[in-house]
Design goal:
By secondary structure, the chain is α+β, with helices and mostly antiparallel strands. It has one domain (2-93): Cell division protein ZapA protomer, N-terminal domain (Double Stranded RNA Binding Domain, 2-Layer Sandwich), CATH 3.30.160. The chain has 3 helices and 2 strands. The chain has helices at residues 23-41, 49-69, 76-93, and strands spanning 2-9, 12-19. The protein has a two-stranded antiparallel sheet with strand order 1-2. The longest helix is centred in the middle third of the chain and has 21 residues, at 49-69. It is globular and about 40 Å long.
């Protein structure tokens, strides 16, 4: 059964329906997206959020395609990428 989950991206809240088993994954994905959007925006707070979202999505899709192109689309390659993203997120979120 789908449950509503609220995530925060660039100081805006979004509510998404998700299965309980996918809740942690969605939350991690939202933190990654928020982190990447903030990184891309840098100090320029005047960048239009929709443009920033598209550029961030393009960067993430490009990284995923590179992983697939190098044969890392299955198994340890994907998990390594997720582990690296989690390490980066942890470093960013640690005060």
């Amino acid at each position: 059964m789908s449950e509503p989950v609220t995530v925060r991206i660039l100081d805006r809240e979004y509510t998404v329906g998700v299965e309980e088993s996918e809740r942690a994954s969605l939350t991690t994905a939202a933190r990654l997206l928020d982190s990447r959007m903030r990184e891309l925006r840098g100090g320029n707070k005047l960048v239009a959020p929709d443009r920033l979202a598209v550029l961030t999505a393009l960067n993430l899709a490009h990284e995923l395609q590179q992983v697939k192109d190098t044969g890392g689309g299955h198994g340890a390659g994907v998990f390594g990428l997720i582990d690296e993203a989690n390490r980066k997120l942890d470093a960013l979120l640690t005060p």
